[in-house]
Amino acid sequence: MNKLGTLLISLAAAAALTACQQKAATPASAPAASDSVAVVDGVPISRGLYDFYVTRITGGRGPSDLSPDDRARALEGLVRAEIVAEEADKEGLTRDPDTVSLLALNRLNVLEQVLSDQYLKDRKPTDEQLRTEYETEVANLPHVEYHARHILVATEPFAERIIEELNHGANFEDLAKEESMDSSKSNGGDLGWFTTQNMVKPFADAVTELKPGEFTQKPVQTQYGWHVIQLVETRPLTPPSFDSAQQRLTQLIEARDFTAYIDGLEKTAKVEKSKL
Predict the structure, then answer these.
(1) Which of 21, 117, 187, 199 is 20 to 30 A away from residue 99, measured at CA?
(2) Residue-level pLDDT at 214
(3) Which of 248, 244, 239 is nearest to 135 (CA)?
(4) How far apart are CA 100 and CA 217, in angstroms?
(5) CA distance 243 to 249
(6) How far apart are CA 11 and CA 80, in angstroms?
(7) How buried is residue 119: exposed, middle or buried, by Cβ count under 10 Å (0-12/13-18/19+)?
């Protein structure tokens, strides 16, 4: 299957939702519009909808950029979506409360996205804003990464017994494979490299107190159970370059700007809430 065929299948559900909304607003006996590309049981599929659909599924190319076969496949995707929508309507699904709610939420999501696109179109972050955001992000990054192993068990006494065995020369990896109830047991309890931000606080605090090669002399409790932790090694954390982080920084700034815009709209909106 070519790329267009795959995209048509992946977007069938979205097209069906759109067709459901059209069906609800268009009488079955409505005449075909002069610019329609197909008519399904009296319901026209407009050329504007077809052009928009093609542009979306091809990442910006219009119908004239496609081969005749691909244009036909795109139209078949919309026709099938309309057929599905009509069948859903016949089955009464468009009147089902869950379907009505789903369509309403779909409308809200679409309108939020298009409003966001319009608001941010001419509000791209400046280079100064991006660099300020980058410096803030880098300053808040941890400076060290940790490589550790752990053994996770259900009770504190069990963890204490494991620590005793380790103090008598037992191999940490072997004990992890035998006793740990964590999925890392198959790797000898190896958790790979991580920062303390990626771990729950009791675990992170315990790791930072260890030197490479050491293991905790007291069990560490988290919501997952009781841990015995061994620090393997540490290394300085190198922050990403400004160029590699620029896209993510742009997204962060734009998301914050749009949120502030919505906050302003909310302050001026007249809202009446029922007691839940």
Answers:
(1) 117
(2) 98
(3) 239
(4) 58
(5) 10
(6) 12
(7) middle
The pLDDT, as a whole number, for residue 34 is 62
- Res 186: pLDDT: 96
Both structure tokens of 261: 């815009």
In the chain, the domains with their CATH numbers are 3-121 (no CATH), 141-236 (3.10.50.40)
pLDDT given for residue 32 in this prediction? 46
Look at the block and give the residue holding tokens 């502030």.
260
What pLDDT is attached to residue 35? Answer: 83
Region of residue 7 (phi > 0: left; psi between -120 and 50: alpha; otherwise: beta): alpha
> How high is the mean pLDDT in each 10-residue block of the chain (276 residues)?
45 47 44 75 93 92 94 94 95 95 96 97 96 94 95 98 97 97 97 95 97 98 98 94 96 97 96 93
